[in-house]
Structure formats: C-alpha cells, structure tokens
Design brief:
With about 375 residues, this protein is α/β, with parallel strands linked by helices. The protein is about 35% helix and about 25% strand. Strand 18 and strand 19 form a beta hairpin. The chain is globular, with a radius of gyration of 21 Å. Bound molecules: L-homoserine.
Length: about 375
C-alpha cells in the first residue's frame, strides 16, 4: 500500500522508523513545512501533490493541531483516500464533518492513535460498542497530569518542576495548558464517546477542570483523607439526546485501582451491559507507542477492518444535572453552601461539600474563581 505522511515530527518520524523494512507499505510522499534535505524527493511542500497522486491510497496525518490538518484530512477522505490520524483535537472538534467526508468518499478514518498513545483502547471500545451496550467511558487519559499528580503526591515535588520534566520527555502538548487545564483529556473523552456511543459531543459543553492550581498544601489534606488525586474524564450513556460528561480532578481511595496508576501511565475503561467493567492500561503518550498505534491503523486498512467512527449517528448535548458527588474545595473565598471545614491551607480553607451535581459545582466554581482564581477543587469517588 502506497501512503503519504503529513508531517514528520515526533510521531511521524516514529512511523517512518517502524515502517522501515516492511515491504507491505511504501511511504511515497512526505508533506513538510521546511526543507529536510535527507528526505530528498520524498518531501513535498504541496498537499496537492499528494491529493492528485492516485497511487497513494492512504494518508497518515501526524501534523497535530486543528488547521491545516482538518483541511487536508477532509480533502483526502472526500477524494477516497483513507486516513490514519493521531489528532484528538481535530477529531473532537469536527467529528460529524469528518464522518460525513469519509462516507462521501467511501474512505475509512482510523483514529486509534488519538487516545491512549499505544493502548488498543478505541479499537476495542468501538468493537464493544457495536451492540449498543456501552454504559460509560472513563479513565485517566492524560499522562502529563498523572505524572504531575503522582510525583507531587509520592515525592512532594513541585508542580512546575514535574511539568518541565514531562515537557522534556515529550509527553506534554506543545502548549501544556491543554494538559494541565484538562483540555487534552476533554478532547480524548469526546473521541471515546464517538467510538463507544456512536455520537458526537461538543467539547465546549463538557464541564472541564484541570490541576493548574493544585498545591502541596492540598496534597497534605488528601493524605489526611486517605485519598489520592487523579484527573478523570467520564461520559455516561446518552438518554433522550443528552448525557453526563465531565473532566475533573478526582480523589480516589488509596486502594482504588486508579490510585495505582503511576508516572505518565493511562488507565482507560468502559462499562458494557454484559461484559461489565473493562480497563486498558499502558503508555498513553510518546513517540514509539503512538507511532505503533498509527501503524496498527494502517494494518487495519490493509486487512479491511472498519474505522472506529463508522457508527457515528448524530450529536448529543451534555447534561450534568443528574450526576452528583461530594467535592473537596480549597478556597479563600466565602462559601455560600454548607460544607465541612477540613483544614487551613495557607490563607485558604479546605472543605468537603455534601453531594452536588457536577453542573452545580462547576457553576459555583466559575463564580468563586472571580474572587479566588487560585482555588482548587476535586470530586470524591465513593
Ligand atoms: N499530552 C498528552 C498526554 C500526550 O500527556 O497524555 C498524549 O496524547
């Protein structure tokens, strides 16, 4: 199969290395933005060279970011070229347009590498979802924040130092805001929802909180509570056109399986009506694992397997009014709800609330942040 690579950065160069010597695939063209002499005649600055080349059956998009990746992927699909992509941001924001383009061009869109790096999650989720029985998708889907949470909690390390370590290791996004504010996890949740439930969810509707304001003072209180903080993304089965969906720091018991996820590993799962709870664990980021999952997508194309988005049928809205849990909240602002005071943390006070709906809590936090931008909150998993 003759293929083209769009981009040859971290994941793209991993794909090239892992395809070396595999006679079933030939990289015919590589789209680049700047001169890379060692690529010789393989390199092109023109996407049209790739689009017009009828020998190229599949395009591997590893540019990242929304544009121009989206434009190239839509045009490839409409022209009947299959696409393999690791681009969670592009996918999550344009799910329906991409599925329509694939349908129009009778092309397949392989997305497994966009969630969980090398973990075979989306593939299995989409397969399990064919019988319509997925009840919930959830888990730890961001390695950078897990590394920060784990290292702060186990070594008392400083937030900024661990973030710099994640950037050096190549886990963190180019703009780590996407990691620490939960946006990367949110994009992955929306992609998982499409694969598992066959529906599109607008990322902007998902109540999303990250770990930017977590302090070592909070970590000390978590320890007193016998809990560990993890960033969890969750969406439940849509009913009557809406579904609960959120990304939140979450305090889990120290014996919870989620507490055992160390460093930058991911643990992603689903609950299926008959199969019950299923978890997938492993290296969720990085050059080699992600490139490996891209190549699995190419193998699936070669073997005629369907893509994970083929069941996509319309969109649903987010309704977090019917899902409630208790919350840890540390703030210097005055609270207008009843909550149990736990400890003083610097100038602020840490509290435990009664069960509140996810939508209520996120609305409350938006209000409180105006007085105290530094507040931190986390849901409690019972
Ligand atoms: N920034 C992401 C993470 C990379 O830390 O998990 C993998 O998508």
């Amino acid at each position: 199969m003759k293929i083209a690579l769009l981009g040859v950065g971290t994941v793209g160069s991993g794909v090239r290395e892992q395809l070396a010597g595999d006679s079933r695939f030939e990289i015919k063209r590589i789209l680049v933005r700047r001169e890379i002499p060692e690529l010789g005649a393989l390199a092109t600055f023109s996407f049209d060279d790739i689009l017009r080349d009828d020998e190229i059956e599949a395009v591997v998009e590893v540019i990242g970011g929304e544009q121009p990746a989206l434009d190239y992927v839509l045009r490839s699909l409409r022209a009947g070229k299959h696409v393999v992509t690791a681009n969670k941001l592009m996918l999550s924001e344009n799910m329906e347009a991409l599925a329509e383009a694939a349908h129009a061009g009778r092309a397949r869109l392989m997305i497994d590498a966009s969630v969980g790096g090398g973990i075979p999650y989306l593939h299995n989720l989409a397969r399990a979802g064919r019988r319509g029985g997925i009840q919930s998708v959830f888990g730890i889907v961001n390695g950078t924040t897990n590394l920060i949470l784990d290292t702060m909690q186990s070594e008392g390390a400083d937030f900024a130092d661990v973030l710099a370590q994640a950037q050096r290791a190549g886990y963190a996004e180019a703009d780590p805001t996407a990691d620490i504010d939960g946006l990367d996890a949110r994009a992955k949740l929306c992609v998982a929802a499409a694969a598992g439930f066959g529906c599109a969810v607008r990322p902007a509707e998902v109540d999303t909180a990250g770990i930017r304001t977590l302090s070592l003072g909070d970590v000390r209180v978590f320890r007193q509570l016998g809990r560990v903080c993890r960033l969890i993304a969750r969406m439940d089965r849509p009913e009557n056109g809406s579904a609960p969906a959120y990304v939140e720091p979450t305090l889990v018991g120290s014996m919870d399986i989620l507490a055992a996820i160390r460093r930058n590993d991911n643990l992603i799962g689903y609950v299926e009506r008959n199969a019950g709870l299923q978890y997938f664990f492993g290296q969720g980021a990085g050059k080699s694992p992600t490139a490996f999952n891209v190549i699995m997508g190419l193998e699936d194309l070669l073997e005629g397997r369907p893509g994970a988005l083929e069941r996509l049928a319309g969109s649903v809205s987010v309704d977090n009014g019917r899902l409630a849990h208790r919350y840890y909240l540390r703030t210097a602002a005055r609270l207008e709800i009843e909550a149990q005071a736990l400890a003083d943390v610097g100038e602020a006070r840490a509290y435990l609330t009664a069960p509140l709906s996810v939508s209520h809590m996120h609305a409350l936090v938006r209000k409180l942040r105006k007085a105290d931008p530094n507040l931190f909150f986390a849901g409690l998993r019972d």
